[in-house]
Amino acid sequence: MKIDRTSMSPVGGIQAANRLKQVQNKTTASEADKIAVSDKAQVFQSLLQKAKEIPSVREERVKALTEQIERGEFQVDSQKIAAKLFSQDF
C-alpha cells in the first residue's frame, strides 16, 4: 500500500493555522498581565546592587598590613582579639 503525502498536507496546514490562533489568543491574554514591585523591594534592589559594587577585599588595607609585616612593625593585640571573640555582638 502506497501513501501519497500530498493528500495529507492540507490537514497539516489547518492544524498549523489552529495552533497559530491559540498562540495569538494566549499572547493577547498575557499582555494584560502586570507586575507591581513594592517601594521596599525597589529600595532593596538598589541597595543590593550598590553592595555588589563594593569590593570584597580592601586592597589598600591589605597593602598596608603587608608592609607592616614586612617591616616587622605589625603587632597582634591579643586583648582586642579576645574581646571580639567573647563579645555579644557577633
Structure notes:
The chain has 90 residues and is mainly alpha-helical. The protein is 66% helix and 0% strand. The chain is built from four helices and no strands. The radius of gyration is 34 Å and the shape is elongated. The N and C termini lie far apart (82 Å). The relative contact order is 0.04.
Write a concise keyword list for the protein shown above.
single chain, mainly alpha, 90 residues, elongated
Question: Which SSEs are present, and which pair or pack?
Answer:
Elements lengths: L8 H23 L7 H15 L5 H13 L6 H8 L5
Computed structural class: mainly alpha
Provide a count of the helices.
4
The number of strands is: 0
Note the overall shape.
elongated
Reading the helices and strands in chain order gives HHHH
Share in helix? 55-70%
Short description:
The chain is mainly α and 90 residues long.
